[in-house]
Each structure stands twice: as C-alpha cells, then as structure tokens.
Amino acid sequence: MANSLNLIIPAKLPAKRWATVSPNYEYGQSAVTWFKQLLQAKRPDVSFVAEQWPALGKIEAGPTVQAIAAADPEAIYNVTFGGDLTKFVREGNTRELFKNRAVVSVLTGEPEYLDPLKDETPAGWIVTGYPWAEVSTPENSTFRAAYQKRFNDYPRLGSVVGYSTVKAAAAALAKAGSTETPKLLAAMSGLKFDGPFGPVEFRAIDHQATMGAFVGKTALKDGRGVMVDWHYADGAKYLPSDDEVRKLRPQ
User: Fold this and answer.
1) How many Å apart are CA 179 and CA 174, to the nearest integer?
2) What's the rounded Cα separation, in Å, for the pair 237 and 12?
3) Torsions phi, psi for 146 (to 5 deg)
4) Using CA atoms, how far apart are residues 92 and 218, in angstroms rounded to an integer?
5) 3-state DSSP call for residue 178?
6) What pTM was computed for the model?
7) What phi, psi does 147 have (nearest 5°)?
C-alpha cells in the first residue's frame, strides 16, 4: 500500500528519469516492482535509468551514490531504512546527490528513522511516516498520552503497529469466542477494530488491513527531522479494488 500512497505526489512531478535504491530482499524488491508498475501506468513517459540493490544492513554508500549520480536521474525512489538510510543520506548529502532532484522515500518519515538522521535530514523528500506530535485525532491523542505516561517516551510507528496487532488479536478472540484455528480464521475475515489511526478492517476478499499511512515531506525543525505538509491517507481508498484482487488472486 505504501507504493500507491507515495504515488499521490510523484505522478504529478515533472521528472521523467528515475533511479531506485532498495535493499535486496523481498520487501525491497516488491516495493520497487510495484512503484515502477504503478507510476508507469499513470505516467507512460517515465523511465527508470538505474537500480541499486545493496544487501540489507550492508550498504556501501559511496559506490551506491556514485552509481546513481552517474545515471543522472531527475528523481530517486528510496526504500532503504535504518542504518542503511543514515549512510545513504550522509553520503548523498556529501556528494550533493539530492540537489535539484526529487526524492520519494518510503518509511523515512517515521520517527525511528528520522531521529538518527538529526540535522542531516534532507528537506523536501516525499515520505510516508508518523508525525506523532501533531496528529490531534481523539484516537491518536489518547494513545500518545497513555504511551508517554507508561514509558516516559514518545511513540514511534512501531509502537502503533505493535499496539494495533494486539488490538486485532484481542478483537479476533472476542469475535471467535474460541482459540480454535477454524473459528479464528472465520473471525479474522472482515474483522473490525479501532486503532491509534482510527477504524481498521481486515478485508474479507484478501485479508488486507485498511490501516492507512501519513504522507508528507521531510523538513528540519530545531535541529531534527520532522514531517510537514502531511495528511492521512486511509488505506481503504488505496488498496486494490475487488476486481483487481480477483485478477491477482484467481480462485
């Protein structure tokens, strides 16, 4: 879903020449495959001029940045995270890889990845993430206050995902009224529960959860990275349609 959410802005960019950088395992491969497919469906004039596939947790940032720069893309799609992201950003800043180039980056707006970047956070990247301090919905406000009271710290996106997972499991058990596998499977189909981002449903047709994501841009504030110009994109609006699911998952 992150790929389709990140297409809200990229499809409108003037950039035609794109490069990708992503960890070389299933998540990274799928993220690039679907981004390319979805973007080119909306923008047939787009081409991908370079792909970099560093091993997860073992990026060689210098050669990676050099190879992307040599292809001279107009925009970059980044899927690296954690320590790989920090190294990629640091080297990219040093070599001015991001200067006058649009960057679309999944996960980078999450506090667990912005925090280590500190004042090295590049401004203007289009990202998915979690602006935990600014989301003032009743659901997030309640969750944030309880989390801070319990842990004396602020929540990360991993906190939301972990909490939502437990909430989903509890809702499934309550609906099933049993721990027997067949009854739990039946209960999970179309299961609904409330999480920090609001109502979530496991769609009956493909069992995908509709929890959405925040989409915005990176910026520097008080020497640290934050998300700005963000909005919440409800996952129910961006998951494949029933007809698409039937094509992807034929009976």
Assistant:
1) 10
2) 19
3) -65, -40
4) 16
5) coil
6) 0.92
7) -65, -45
Query: Which residue is listed with tokens 């994109």?
Result: 233
Contact residues for 68 (Cβ-Cβ < 8 A; gap 6+): 19, 21, 50, 52, 76, 97
Bridge-partner residues for 217, per DSSP?
126, 228
- 34: which 2 tokens? 């679907």
The number of angstroms, rounded, from the C-alpha of 98 to the middle of its chain's C-alpha atoms is: 20
pLDDT in tens, 82-116: 999 999 999 999 999 999 999 999 999 999 999 99
Q: Within a 13 Å sphere around the CA of 194, how many CA atoms are in the beta-carbon half? A: 6
CA distance 185 to 112: 33
Gap between the Cα atoms of 150 and 213, Å rounded: 25
pLDDT, one tens digit per residue, over 132-165 is: 999 999 999 999 999 999 999 999 999 999 999 9
User: What single letter denotes the amino acid at residue 20?
Assistant: T
